[in-house]
Amino acid sequence: MAKVTLEDGYVPSDDEPFMNERQREYFRRKLLNWKSEILREAQDTLTALQSENENHPDLADRASSETDRSIELRARDRQRKLTGKIDAALARLEDGSYGYCEDTGEPISLKRLDARPIATLSLEAQERHERRERVYRDD
C-alpha cells in the first residue's frame, strides 16, 4: 500500500488536532486507494484464472497448477474480507468514530493508522487482546 499525500504534500502530524478535516481526508483517500488496488488485483486474478483453462496432460503439472490456483483463491478471499474492513473504516470516517480505539475510546496513534488504516484498537489494546487470545488458545 503506497503512502498517500494530499496535493500539497500533506501528511498527518501529531502537531495538529486529532482527526481534523485534513487527516480524515488523508485516511479516506488512503482507504479508497487501497480498496481500488485490491479490486484491480482481484479482477486481474479473475482474468488470469479464466485464461488459464489449460488441460495439463502431466499429472505433476496439473497438480502444480491446481495448487497455484488454490493459493491464489485463498489470497483473494483474504482480500475480499479486507475490503469489508476497509468499508467499515470508511463508515467510521463518516460517523466520526474513525481513529478512536473501540476498547478505550482513546485516539489510535497516527503512526499506527498510517501503517494499518483499518485498525480499530490502539496498539496497547491490540496487545492486550492478543495476549488474551494466546491464554485462551493454550487452554
From TrEMBL:
Keywords of this entry: Cytoplasm, Metal-binding, Zinc, Zinc-finger
Residue stretches of biased makeup (Basic and acidic residues): 53-68
Cellular localization per UniProt: Cytoplasm
Residue intervals of every dksA C4-type zinc finger in the record: 101-125
Domain Zinc finger DksA/TraR C4-type: start-end pairs: 96-131
Annotated region (Disordered), positions in chain: 48-68
Keyword Transmembrane on entry: no
UniProt xrefs under Pfam families: DksA_N, zf-dskA_traR
Protein name, as recorded: RNA polymerase-binding transcription factor DksA
Organism: Methylobacterium persicinum
